[in-house]
Amino acid sequence: MFTTFLYTVKVLVRDRNVLMWAVAFPLILATLFYSMFNNLDTTYELDPLPVIIVQDSNYDQAPGFSPLINDLAGTDSPAGTDGTAGTDSTAGTNGANSGENSTAGQALLAPTFVADPEAAQAALAAGDYLGYIVVDDQGRPNYYMDSRRASSIDTLAAVKQSIILNALDRYLQDSQLLAGLAQTDPQLLSDASTLSTLSAQPGLVQRGAITANPPSDALRYFYAVLAFSCIMMMSFGLSAIDFWKANVSALGARRSLGGRSWAWSLAPTLLAAWLLSLICVIVGFLYIRYVFGISFGGKEPACLAVLALSTLVATLLGAVLGAMPFPGGGKAGITAVIACVLSVFAGLYGPASQQLGDYVANNLPALSTINPVRQIYDAFFSLYYYDGYERFAQVILTLAVMAAIFFVLAVLLMRKQRYKSL
Amino acid sequence: MDIIEVKDLVKRYRELVAVDNFSLAIKPGEIFGLLGPNGSGKTTVINCILQLLTYDRGEICLFGEPMSPSRYDLKRRIGIVPQNIAVFSQLNVAENIDYFCSLYVDDRARRRALVDEAIEFVGLEDYRRFRPRKLSGGLIRRLNIACGIVHQPELIIFDEPTVAVDPQSRNAILEGIQRLNERGSTVIYTSHYMQEVEQICTRIMIMDHGQALATGTNSELKALVGINERMEIELAELGEPGGADGSGGPDGTAGLGGPDRAGEADGFMRPGDKSAAALRLVRALPHVATAQLEGSLLRVTCSAGAHNLSDILGALQKAGILYGRVFSEPPTLNDVFLEITGKELRD
Question: What is the CATH number of the domain that holds B282?
Answer without folding.
Answer: 3.30.70.100
